[in-house]
């Protein structure tokens, strides 16, 4: 039992197998054990604000004014950013912006060009 993955919804460790499915007794979530294994081994797909899949090297524009953490700078809406790099984390885009420098963006605030 201890080698089953925790519930992806509520993180409960008390998941159990029911045929090909895994079941969480705490939130009643059911999911496929195969899909769970795939999701954890594959790189996750990062999408922009309208659902386009983003890739390393893409050019994006910023869709809302974004404050740069720790400074008074603002990345203005419509700012074009070339050659993005996808990374893991809350801010999933690593990039360099003219006049600002290296920073991280959230994919939900950008749109692929
Ligand atoms: Zn659960």
From TrEMBL:
**Where does the Protein YjdM C-terminal domain start and stop, copy by copy?**
46-113
Q: Which InterPro entries match?
A: YjdM, YjdM_C, YjdM_N
Recorded hits in Pfam families, A to Z, give:
YjdM, Zn_Ribbon_YjdM
Segments forming domain Protein YjdM N-terminal: 4-32
Coiled-coil region: none
Q: Which NCBIfam families match?
A: phnA
Protein family: Belongs to the YjdM family.
Q: Which PANTHER family match?
A: PROTEIN YJDM (PTHR30305:SF3), PROTEIN YJDM-RELATED (PTHR30305)
This chain belongs to which protein, by name? Alkylphosphonate utilization protein
Q: Which organism is it from?
A: Pseudomonas schmalbachii
